[in-house]
């Protein structure tokens, strides 16, 4: 993932009040509200990540992040 996509994800995550964590198969969970954490976790194309949220708006946050990823962060293919 490049910096623009990571920034979009962090911007979206930061719009929710809940705690949002991203984790990969071999990495510690990182805050979805941290650009550096997101970049370190999602460094290469094809990385599978899990999204977990806790608190108010948790399900809405997970759904919105899923939509952003499915939309390829708004980038053309």
Question: What structural keywords apply?
Answer:
77 residues; Histidine-containing Protein, Chain: A; three-stranded antiparallel beta sheet; 16% strand; globular
Write a structural description.
Helix 1 (3-14) crosses helix 2. The protein has a single domain, classed as Histidine-containing Protein, Chain: A (2-Layer Sandwich), CATH 3.30.1340.10. With 77 residues, it is an alpha+beta fold. 42% of the residues lie in helices and 16% in strands. The chain has 3 helices and 3 strands, in the order H-E-E-H-E-H.
How would the blueprint of this fold be written?
Blueprint: H1 3-14, E1 19-23, E2 30-31, H2 35-41, E3 50-54, H3 58-70
Antiparallel strand pairs: 1-2, 1-3
What is the distance, rounded to the nearest whole angstrom, between the alpha carbons of the first and last residues?
Answer: 14 Å
- Overall shape: it is globular
How many distinct helices?
3
Based on secondary structure, the structural category is: alpha+beta
What's the CATH H-level homologous superfamily? HPr-like
User: How many E strands?
Assistant: 3
Strand-residue proportion: 15-25%
Topology-level CATH name = Histidine-containing Protein, Chain: A
N-to-C order of helices and strands:
HEEHEH
- Strand order in the largest sheet: 2-1-3
Runs with pLDDT <50, length 5+? none
């Amino acid at each position: 993932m490049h910096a623009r996509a990571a920034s979009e994800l962090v911007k979206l995550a930061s719009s929710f009040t809940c705690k949002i964590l991203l984790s990969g198969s071999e990495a510690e969970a990182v805050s979805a509200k941290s650009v550096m954490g997101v970049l370190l976790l999602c460094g290469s194309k094809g990385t599978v990540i899990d999204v977990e949220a806790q608190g108010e708006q948790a399900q809405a946050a997970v759904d919105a992040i899923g939509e952003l990823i499915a939309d390829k962060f708004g980038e053309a293919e």
